[in-house]
Amino acid sequence: RIIESSGKLKISPEQHWDFTAEDLKDLGEIGRGAYGSVNKMVHKPSGQIMAVKRIRSTVDEKEQKQLLMDLDVVMRSSDCPYIVQFYGALFREVGTPNLLHS
Fold it and tell me: What SUPFAM superfamilies does the database record attribute to this sequence (predicted)?
């Protein structure tokens, strides 16, 4: 059983949204990697199109720690012009984060 959680989505300094996975419409897979897949999605309330990285949950404590460290770096680097724009993250009860990027 998966229980959805809610999160905060920051599209711009002026646009903040409370959201759940139900607010995202999947437009199809655009890539796949070692940790999961990337899907093109639209945030229905704002119309913002974004890439959502779905990361498979893992029970490996070392991998979980590395994932959280990577997420922390992306969150701290959101103003860097050399990386994608980070909008937010949504975790499900099973531990699968959805990372939202432009």
Answer: Protein kinase-like (PK-like)
**Contact status, residue 75 vs residue 68, Cβ threshold 8 Å:** no
Using the structure block, give the residue that is written with the tokens 């419409």: 25
pTM given for the model: 0.70
Neighbours of 93 (CB within 10 A): 11
pLDDT, tens digit, 9 for 90 and up, residues 11-58: 888 888 888 888 989 999 999 877 778 889 999 999 999 888 887 766
Kindly report the backbone phi and psi dihedral angles of residue 61, in degrees, each rounded to the nearest multiple of 5, phi listed first. Answer: -60, -35
**Nearest by Cα to 36 from 18, 22, 54, 20:** 54
Helix (H) or strand (E) holding 100: strand 97-101
Q: How far is the C-alpha of 32 from the C-alpha of 55, rounded, in Å?
A: 10
